[in-house]
């Protein structure tokens, strides 16, 4: 009897030891998992909120990458951007066609602004080269002294040529497909909006549009590649549409389409719009975003460096 009790006690102790060992192993695994999980959370938090210094460095690297791209790569990518923006022109024209039936300018302005960002979202997220993105981004390496201004002008020229070539092609496609799209009236309404202002008004409108687009490019660099980037693009381009501001490339698609589809517009009107819009977009992006952002961030870094104890 005593022997049996002794054996049971030994078995119970063995089971307790085994359970204790299993529990200890699981606890150790849980502790290890917790240790490994915390850095992941910290890393994601850091990625979600980037310091302006880091954004500037990223912008400089991005600008250098674009400046160093081969000729054919820039041309093809920028042509793709001009083609993609046809979806903005199409969406706005379709909405303008239907909204015009209400004969209410507020409805027309808001409804077209809601769909204006669609082509821009596709264009920017797909990584194609849009001129108004580079009015600021490509300036940073020049300000930093890591690229020459002639390289900046080369980039701008190639991207503009590619964007406009894509705009002409996409306008042709929209014209040929208009029997299906049925947005002729919308293209005419938009084109009248693009050319019916004085040179001064058009320049300042384009400056605001270029400013917003360059801000959008900065925000994209400041946010992780998630839905937040799409939100940034939507916000800035919605504001452009809501304000009726003039974007050189999207407006070029709209003007070329109106030129092809209607006899109300001339080549000289189209050329005037494009030249003024490009000039304004360039000023808005390079001065109001690139120079100001670079200046205030670098100045802050200098002050912080001077204040550090020797």
From TrEMBL:
<keyword id="KW-1133">Transmembrane helix</keyword>
<feature type="region of interest" description="Disordered">
    <location>
        <begin position="1"/>
        <end position="22"/>
    </location>
</feature>
<feature type="transmembrane region" description="Helical">
    <location>
        <begin position="106"/>
        <end position="131"/>
    </location>
</feature>
<dbReference type="GO" id="GO:0005886">
    <property type="term" value="C:plasma membrane"/>
</dbReference>
<dbReference type="Pfam" id="PF01226">
    <property type="entry name" value="Form_Nir_trans"/>
</dbReference>
<dbReference type="InterPro" id="IPR000292">
    <property type="entry name" value="For/NO2_transpt"/>
</dbReference>
<protein>
    <submittedName>
        <fullName>Formate/nitrite transporter</fullName>
    </submittedName>
</protein>
<feature type="transmembrane region" description="Helical">
    <location>
        <begin position="152"/>
        <end position="177"/>
    </location>
</feature>
<feature type="transmembrane region" description="Helical">
    <location>
        <begin position="233"/>
        <end position="261"/>
    </location>
</feature>
<keyword id="KW-0812">Transmembrane</keyword>
<feature type="transmembrane region" description="Helical">
    <location>
        <begin position="74"/>
        <end position="100"/>
    </location>
</feature>
<dbReference type="InterPro" id="IPR023271">
    <property type="entry name" value="Aquaporin-like"/>
</dbReference>
<feature type="transmembrane region" description="Helical">
    <location>
        <begin position="197"/>
        <end position="221"/>
    </location>
</feature>
<dbReference type="GO" id="GO:0015499">
    <property type="term" value="F:formate transmembrane transporter activity"/>
</dbReference>
<keyword id="KW-0472">Membrane</keyword>
<feature type="transmembrane region" description="Helical">
    <location>
        <begin position="273"/>
        <end position="294"/>
    </location>
</feature>
């Amino acid at each position: 009897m005593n022997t049996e009790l002794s054996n049971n006690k030994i078995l119970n102790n063995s089971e307790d030891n085994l359970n204790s060992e299993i529990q200890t192993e699981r606890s150790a695994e849980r502790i290890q998992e917790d240790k490994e999980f915390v850095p992941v959370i910290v890393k994601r938090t850091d990625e979600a909120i980037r310091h302006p210094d880091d954004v500037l460095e990223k912008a400089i690297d991005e600008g250098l990458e674009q400046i160093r791209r081969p000729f054919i790569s820039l041309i093809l990518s920028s042509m793709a951007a001009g083609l993609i923006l046809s979806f903005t022109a199409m969406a706005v024209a379709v909405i303008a066609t239907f909204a015009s039936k209400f004969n209410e300018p507020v409805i027309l302005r808001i409804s077209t602004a809601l769909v204006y960002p669609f082509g821009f979202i596709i264009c920017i997220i797909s990584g194609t080269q849009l001129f108004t993105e580079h009015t600021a981004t490509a300036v940073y390496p020049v300000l930093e002294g890591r690229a020459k201004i002639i390289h900046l002008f080369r980039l701008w020229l190639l991207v503009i040529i590619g964007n406009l070539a894509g705009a002409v092609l996409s306008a042709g496609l929209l014209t040929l497909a208009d029997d299906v799209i049925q947005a002729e009236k919308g293209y005419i309404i938009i084109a009248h909006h693009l050319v019916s202002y004085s040179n001064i008004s058009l320049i300042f409108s384009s400056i605001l549009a270029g400013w917003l687009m360059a801000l959008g490019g900065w925000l994209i660099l400041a946010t992780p590649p998630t839905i937040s980037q799409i939100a940034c693009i939507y916000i800035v381009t919605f504001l452009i549409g809501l304000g009726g501001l003039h974007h050189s490339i999207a407006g070029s698609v709209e003007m070329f389409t109106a030129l092809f589809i209607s006899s109300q517009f001339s080549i000289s009107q189209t050329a005037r719009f494009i030249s003024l819009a490009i000039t304004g977009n360039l000023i808005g992006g390079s001065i109001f975003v690139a120079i100001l952002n670079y200046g205030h961030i670098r100045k802050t870094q200098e002050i912080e460096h001077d204040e550090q104890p020797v």
